[in-house]
């Protein structure tokens, strides 16, 4: 690499940078800045002088020969009548379905203990798009990126379609007969039966398990969530004497301290909504919260921090306890029995920041909250519990929850299986053969259990160890209920079962009946009977299903904090010293614990921080990488406790020195998409529940070789122009436009006339956290194809909206700004002028629109777009979709073929849908009635869409805000998207 | 300015014209021959796209919000 470091030359360090090469201004980076596309994105090399394709060894004669042959072959092939399909009308139309009209069903799902109330859009009976349930008082119509993408899992071609026993397909009567016979035999012999499932957050599922336990007293149930955080569970038991569910209430928070907590990652739409509400400031006098983050690896929450300090995770607890001690010294009362005498003064946080942090927390009092990351050690969680108790925080809800099993419990079960304790084992929606750190020991012990049954959707590593496989419904085909703090939520099917599957509850209900329990015929009846007893007066079950929820008071208890539990944790924290490199194992953005690894939408969505797709390289701090001579993509060997993994490395600015981070959920051995993607990091998980995810003593060494990373952070460059703006609150108050001045635009074009509407968008960078929910929502709505890791590495990803992540400042602890970038729908669009066939043109409502069947694929428009938001379908990406996957397509959006340019349409199909409905009702379109997919998916409401012709519309008012600017306004393209500058709220003098 | 990259003409113009016409003709004939070969077995047919056998059923007992 041609390198010129800043201290070796006169070049000025750029203010904002996306890659390390840009930051250190290497000559490679300077050269690359002139290539807006990766050179590999094009079909071949081009002549640097004339811009024409280089034609090495290809003569005119060859050309004519090929043209002749091609003409002859084309003429021959054209005679074949291929691709004939038949359109079959409904012979008997279901009453629910009106062709061309979407139906919406309220339903819900969960991921571990987190519940997602949703609204599901179906077309002709097919669920095609998911958003949050707008009736739910907590999520307010928002949901997580993984929930948005879960509609694709319904159509996963790898789903098991009928029961199987020892490889033989069989019917449900025989399959359930085998299971029931095994359970009856176990009951008769008095031997134990092991049932391992995910977290139980459903009251009816809990009741069903109790019924089963009553019918089969030897049943042992473990609810295991491998990435929920064993440390959090251990700490809850110590601090509250029971398992708890900690939910932030950020609407009440003025000061937030995160100890490695990633509550802005997109998993928690409720927190994101409350965060966004306090960040969308109109003036500097509006209330804004302040976010302090102490963490090892850079998290999405860390990138949104007002003040962030990199701290090694094993030292977080000591720092937090020192904070409690300091607050106590300043007069904040400690809970009775709390002993912090073992805690010395901290040295991790610089003195000035420390003093500001203490002041902030003390001043905010009950409006301050301390949140701890699920993967952090138990002592750090206990310190957070203590601090919240001291502050009397109202910005966090602690509710009693059903206990979760830890790795220790799984280890005990393994021992029991090996000793022949169990007559049967049932695995329901869990995959311990993959997620348990000692997987080979687990498999060996499991083989000694005489009867092994598996209930799930896609045959996984655990299914391979079981004799009886029972295919389960997707949640979009299932009944259920969930408990949340603000409402009980109901789950209902949105489609009949696609295959010969059953939901797990029905299997267990049938088993309970076979064992003598007097219970309902099926789980739907069971659920209905339970709810009809407890619904509030005047509410019917049908109404509850229509709404998707039953509002009411939270019945879960709020346990009290036990001060006496702190002394032991404080001593352990004080004694904890870093040893070697510290490895943090965190759930993958795309994969979580591996359950989403077979979802190609998620695999291809760039990680919000590293911008990696289709892989989980180990993230190394820049300082450590320089010391070890590791460069981006170098293969390294990561060793810990006798386990060694060979995997590529990436350099992560902002990561604490001495910390390495690795995502879980990759390296699966089953699944058409998941198999072989990334490296399985579960073998590195610790067996000590107090610190299973933070491991000391890891060793890293260069292993030779380099991997080409499918990483998008350097794609679609905009030549280092002034694109992103970030202000501090002080600057916002005194210089709301920063040091930027709106350029005077002189245009040769006449101003366009928009007779009825002029659609526009405003994106508030202060509210955008970079969670990427908009990327997934757009993919689902607009049939955006998946291209795979090799094509991503060539810069050919197809997302219509991308999130550009910019660093600002020092490598060790940069500030970060996230900027969603999509077609700007320019009035003087540079792409429109250069299209030789007028495939891209302007609508009378200000939309830059594409006529796909007119596009001949010159790609001139992509070259001339200053925002790099046009995507070219180089190969037939959509043809890779197999039959069930195509059912996820939105019929209102054209599926684009090869050789065609495509891009954001401002969800024109949604605009037209509302226009048609408004016309039918004989009224005007209401402000806010049209929502683009990205806007509807954005959990922090950072995106606003509307009519710029309507002076009262929200979007019209926002475009004149003091923070407003347009990207590359000086080019005179007149984009229809306005950005509001990012805001940071650091403490005074920082 | 002379085109220095241009190859010198070594063949008579008639030869070149013949090649230009005959090349595509022969290749086209070959291509046709691949498709229409009555005395030979046609080989494995290209895989047909799998027929859609998944029947879509509406959910039973569910209550829709709107539509």
TrEMBL record, chain A:
It comes from Geothrix limicola. This is Molybdopterin oxidoreductase. It comes from the Bacteria. InterPro entries: 4Fe4S_Fe-S-bd (IPR017896), Asp_de-COase-like_dom_sf (IPR009010), TAT_var_transloc_signal_dom (IPR030948). Pfam families: Fer4_7 (PF12838). Signal peptide: none annotated. PROSITE patterns: 4FE4S_FER_2 (PS51379). Residues 759-789, 814-845 form the 4Fe-4S ferredoxin-type domain.
Automatic annotation (TrEMBL), chain B:
Residues 37-67 are annotated as: Disordered. Residues 58-67 have a biased composition (Basic and acidic residues). This is Uncharacterized protein. It comes from Geothrix limicola.
